[in-house]
Design goal:
Order of helices and strands of chain B: HHHHEHHEEEH
Oligomer: heterodimer
Largest sheet of chain A: 5 strands, mixed
Number of strands of chain A: 13
Shape of chain A: globular
Helix content of chain A: 40-55%
Helix content of chain B: 25-40%
Bound molecules: flavin mononucleotide, iron/sulfur cluster, FE2/S2 (inorganic) cluster
Strand order of the largest sheet of chain A: 8-7-13-10-11
Distance between the termini of chain A: 39 Å
Radius of gyration of chain B: 17 Å
Number of strands of chain B: 4
């Protein structure tokens, strides 16, 4: 399954520099698009590719692009979402570090497709060291005529800038990102209007994840149909999975969609099994917001089929026995992990990161953290467990942005799969781990 | 920081601010707020006092309250004085799984302060932060603009010694790294 689209050639010395990247086929897709394709052709190839957003929601990219409002002469914007803050997710970090020019090439192609003449890379504020790498690459792209006025002698022009956030998970949410870029608090906006109609400065805007954008050059070079042949079913192409926790080989892996989870966890080519010969207890497969699954259900679906790394297979079984591919943040926990403590940690995180606009999220995350705290530290009551699940249920669907669900799903799924551990904490009046 | 320090950017920094403002459309200079706050925090002692925030407001033609409300929203901005060297320790799930708590309590004992506090000599501040998007190297800490992964107590001790010896100051203008 050696299919490298995003991480090809990254071990070549100086691959982050223009000359090396170019020698190995870099920016050829820009030449092809500018010389032989209209912006509509680019959108069509991306539609054919079946590429779905890699930021977590998995929305088809070509379709999203076709929503951008082209009815006015207002400027249009492409915003690259490099805010990567979902716990367990560090793939965009690695991609930018190893392959900055691929991202820039993808931004040029995507902006061209959208008719955007300005684009911003919105990066998390802790990443100024990565901004240095990006700015060097951007400067090289300007010098070589791939950015700036009249790219490759055409009448298409594009300016690209980096913009830092200030440390707030919520700014990864696309409308909060726009607020932050406008110099405001990162409070998500109510939709509609959608950014494709009214985004940055009230103008049509598309927001895409780093990995999504970096997949575009390959699609333009080889065609959408070729891309759609990679992967499985509606999960086309490759996906970066960032794996962490109790495993022998943490890191970022580019896998072809459809790789069996079992092979991913246990084969030496990937995670190399559980650390210290321990047993697998649970996995959070798509960043901390997705439902947790116990070992048996992450390896096999409830129908007994092997679980695969794809949108469909991971969500097989729905909330009861499935999860989601999400951002590809794969968090592995061994048998020594206290699942209540782990949940307390994430719930504290969501409480800390709630922007506070909606009461179910603002108040619900406070209460869930408090109750989990007392269960973990031996002061919980049996009916606290149902109370927790109830609070979570009341957050879902009642908030402006999906952070509400992101906080609620881990709580409900952990109780669903590990209720007896909560009960033991209450009975023993302490955590036994 | 020296309380007598004049709150005014150097010519060089002002040129940088003008360049950043030029990245946004005319009249949208408010977009430069987060970048300029990062610079101001670095240049004025690692935190944003009210006079510093007022200065930033005047530079960008904003009301002071537009700056205050933003500063208090984002966790990277410090609204109280800090030590010369801020050690930011990630405490979120994946780092917790890999021993972040041990690193935190080790540092608290070693520096004799609690997380969130500054040593009496003003050398170190301990700050707990959320997932730094480097969980493959857990446990992770950040000092200034540098990431350090696979932290252990021994590695931490070595780093502290090094920071002390070299009088490391963690707040540096991120645009001139
Ligand atoms: C709370 C929250 C945090 C998010 N954080 C990120 C993020 O860090 N990076 C990202 O690409 N998308 C993030 N998203 C998803 C974005 O809102 C958006 O869907 C995505 O950037 C779209 O790009 P894509 O279609 O290419 O995936 C987040 C969403 C929510 C609700
Ligand atoms: S769901 Fe939470 S984070 Fe999202 S807008 Fe409402 S309060 Fe803010
Ligand atoms: S949890 Fe510490 S870097 Fe992600």
């Amino acid at each position: 399954m050696e299919k490298k689209i995003l991480l090809a050639n990254i071990e070549t010395p100086d691959f982050g520099r223009f000359d090396t990247f170019r020698k190995l086929g870099g920016y050829v897709a820009v030449e092809k698009a500018m010389k032989t394709m209209t912006s509509g052709n680019v959108v069509d190839e991306v539609k054919k590719s079946g590429l779905r957003g890699r930021g977590g929601a998995g929305f088809p990219t070509g379709m999203k692009w076709s929503f951008i409002d082209k009815s006015t002469n207002n400027p249009r914007y492409l915003l690259c979402n490099a805010d990567e803050s979902e716990p367990g997710t560090f793939k965009d970090h690695y991609l930018i570090l190893k392959n900055p020019h691929l991202l820039i090439e993808g931004i040029i192609l995507s902006s061209y497709a959208l008719g955007a003449n300005t684009s911003y890379i919105f990066f998390r504020g802790e990443w100024f060291y990565l901004m240095k790498i990006l700015e060097q690459a951007i400067e090289e792209a300007y010098t070589n005529g791939f950015l700036g006025k009249n790219i490759l002698g055409t009448n298409y022009s594009l300016d690209l800038y980096c913009h830092p956030s200030g440390g707030a998970y919520i700014c990864g949410e696309e409308t909060a990102l726009i607020e932050a870029l406008e110099g405001k608090r990162g409070n998500p906006r109510s939709k509609p209007p959608f950014p494709a109609v009214k985004g940055l400065y009230g103008n049509p805007t598309v927001i895409n994840n780093v990995e999504t954008i970096a997949s575009i050059p390959w699609i333009i070079n080889h065609g959408g149909d070729e891309y759609a042949k990679i992967g499985i079913g509606k999960s086309t192409g490759t996906k970066l999975i960032s794996a962490c926790g109790h495993i022998n080989k943490p890191g970022v892996y580019e896998i072809e969609m459809g790789l069996p989870v079992k092979e991913f966890i246990y084969s030496d080519e990937y995670l190399g099994g559980i650390k210290n010969g321990k047993k697998l207890k649970a996995v959070i497969a798509g960043g901390s917001s997705v439902p947790i699954l116990p070992a048996d259900l992450i390896l096999k679906t409830s129908k007994g089929e092997p679980r695969l790394l794809s949108y469909e297979s991971l969500s097989d079984g729905g909330f009861e026995t499935g999860t989601m591919l999400g951002s590809g943040g794969f968090i592995v926990m061994d048998e020594t992990t206290c699942i209540v403590h782990s949940l307390l940690n994430y719930t504290r995180f969501y409480h800390h990161e709630s922007c506070g606009q909606c009461s179910p999220c603002r108040e619900g995350t406070v209460w869930m953290e408090k109750i989990l705290h007392r269960i973990e530290y031996g002061e919980g009551k049996m009916n606290d467990i149902n109370l927790l699940a109830d609070i979570a249920k009341h957050i879902e669907g009642n908030t402006i942005c999906p952070l509400g669900e992101a906080a609620a799903w881990p709580v409900r799924s952990t109780i669903l799969h590990f209720r007896e551990e909560f009960e033991e904490h209450v009975k023993n009046k302490k955590c036994n781990i | 920081m020296n309380v007598e320090q004049k709150i005014i950017f150097s010519e060089q920094t002002l040129a940088l601010v003008r360049k950043i403002v030029s990245h946004y459309p005319d009249g949208k200079q408010k977009s430069a707020l987060l970048p300029v706050l990062h610079i101001a925090q670095a240049e004025f002692g690692g935190w944003l006092s009210v006079p510093v925030m007022d200065y930033v407001a005047s530079l960008l033609n904003l009301l002071p309250v537009e700056v205050y409300e933003v500063v208090t929203f984002y966790s990277m901005f410090n609204t109280k004085p800090v030590g010369n060297c801020i050690i930011e320790i990630c405490r979120t799930g994946p780092c917790w799984l890999c021993g972040a708590d041990e690193i935190i309590s080790h540092l608290e004992n070693k520096l004799k302060i609690k997380a969130g506090e500054t040593t009496p000599d003003g050398r170190f501040t301990l700050k707990l932060v959320e997932c730094l998007a480097d969980c493959g190297n857990a446990p992770v800490i950040q000092v200034g603009w540098d990431y350090y992964g696979n932290m252990s107590k021994a590695k931490m001790d070595e780093m502290i010694e090094n920071f002390e010896k070299n009088h490391v100051v963690s707040h540096k203008n991120p645009y001139v790294l």
